[in-house]
UniProtKB/TrEMBL annotation:
Domain NAD-dependent epimerase/dehydratase: from-to ranges: 55-76
One Gene Ontology term of the molecular function aspect: NAD+ binding
Stated role: Catalyzes the NAD-dependent decarboxylation of UDP-glucuronic acid to UDP-xylose. Necessary for the biosynthesis of the core tetrasaccharide in glycosaminoglycan biosynthesis.
Involved pathway(s): Nucleotide-sugar biosynthesis; UDP-alpha-D-xylose biosynthesis; UDP-alpha-D-xylose from UDP-alpha-D-glucuronate: step 1/1
Name of this protein: UDP-glucuronate decarboxylase
Pfam family, one: Epimerase
Organism: Erythroxylum novogranatense
Cofactor(s) the record lists: NAD(+)
Length: 371
């Protein structure tokens, strides 16, 4: 999808900066000689006083991609598709274990061939390209939290390898095009992200728990329940991606929320906030499930001035509202009655509690009111 963003290009400073920016490397181990970036399409400069920034987003109809497109299009105008672009956000790839395990060949082809196609376009038109890589490149990490310098612990032939290794190859291609052709690249290693528009039954833990709680189904925690994840709300993620694209650092840079939760803690939080009546059950785990995952976001703070703002307890209800709307399940209003006060204070404490319980059960069975 093409997003036209109105900008005023500084001819005397901006163009020279763009030609030298690719030489700036985030990590010290990428210090090999780098060619200057290819010149942008002549179309960019032939209209530079009038033209808008042209941005290509692959995967723009997906979960994070759709939020990114919304942000990019704020207060801007939508123009017809022009393949001459200035920036490419490359998000396209199945990210749910259910989907990438169902079609692993398509998944790895998207990561490899899709990335090659986008890099070829970036080379032709002189565009800057951002790849959304993943924390899965760290595999089942042996260091905690994970820094960008960690090479990972990945099973190359497991059921998740189409995604894990596919993203690792995509990162390799990005740096090879950067070193060989001078392409301006940005690499974001994104950690678990949640928010509105997630597929309701996509198999990821936050969407699973919220959908189950809204449907009044047991929350299924994969054993042993002590494995950890860190969850970043989608608006924070989009802000981080845009800062990385607009900044001067190639990456890779971790983008995620360092708040760490066990799966049991997440289930208890969803139960508390969304449906206190649901049960929590343990189910068998999937192969190669990482035991822990937490980003070190020091580089994001120092180089991008970015850190997440929305806490898990504040983000989950926003996602719940979206799920209830799509599932057609309204919120229920619970009614609490002080039975001792109704009886004029003469009822015993035990009797009051029993009557309150019975009344509450009656209300929960009968009341199904919209908020």
């Amino acid at each position: 999808m093409i997003v036209e963003i109105q900008i005023l290009i500084n001819w005397f400073g901006g163009s020279e900066k763009s030609r030298t920016m690719a030489k700036e490397m985030t990590n010290g181990d990428h210090s090999s000689s780098i060619k200057p970036p290819p010149m942008p399409s002549p179309l960019r400069f032939s209209k530079f006083f009038q033209s808008n920034m042209r941005i290509l987003v692959t995967g723009g109809a997906g979960f994070i991609g759709s939020h990114l497109v919304d942000k990019l299009m704020e207060n801007e105008k939508n123009e017809p598709l022009l393949v001459e672009v200035d920036q490419i956000y490359h998000l396209a790839c199945p990210a749910s274990p259910i989907f990438y395990k169902y079609n692993p060949v398509k998944t790895i082809k998207t990561n490899v061939i899709g990335t090659l196609n986008m890099l070829g376009l970036a080379k032709r038109v002189g565009a800057r390209i951002l790849l959304t890589s993943t924390s899965e490149v760290y595999g089942d990490p042996l260091i905690h939290p994970q820094t960008e310098s960690y090479w990972g612990n990945v099973n190359p032939i497991g059921v998740r390898s189409c995604y894990d290794e596919g993203k690792r190859v995509a990162e390799t291609l990005m740096f090879d095009y950067h070193r060989q052709y001078g392409i301006e690249i940005r690499i974001a290693r994104i950690f678990n992200t949640y928010g509105p528009r997630m597929n309701i039954d996509d198999g990821r833990v936050v969407s699973n728990f919220i959908a189950q709680a809204v449907r009044n189904e047991p929350l299924t925690v994969q054993a042993p329940g002590t494995q950890t994840r860190s969850f970043c709300y989608v608006s924070d993620m989009v802000d981080g991606l845009i800062r990385l694209m607009e900044g001067e650092n190639t990456g890779p840079i971790n983008i995620g929320n360092p708040g760490e939760f066990t799966m049991l803690e997440l289930a208890e939080t969803v139960k508390e906030l969304i449906n206190p009546d649901v049960e929590i059950t343990m189910v068998e785990n999937t192969p190669d499930d990482p035991r822990q995952r937490k980003p070190d976001i020091t580089k994001a703070k120092e180089l991008l001035g970015w850190e997440p703002k929305i806490k898990l307890r504040n983000g989950l209800p926003l996602m719940e509202d979206d799920f209830r709307l799509r599932l057609g399940v309204p919120r229920r209003k619970w009614v609490h009655v002080n039975c001792t006060r109704l009886s004029g204070g003469s009822m015993s404490t035990a009797a009051s509690k029993w009557l309150s319980l019975l009344f509450s059960l009656f209300c929960r069975a009968e009341a199904n009111l919209k908020p």
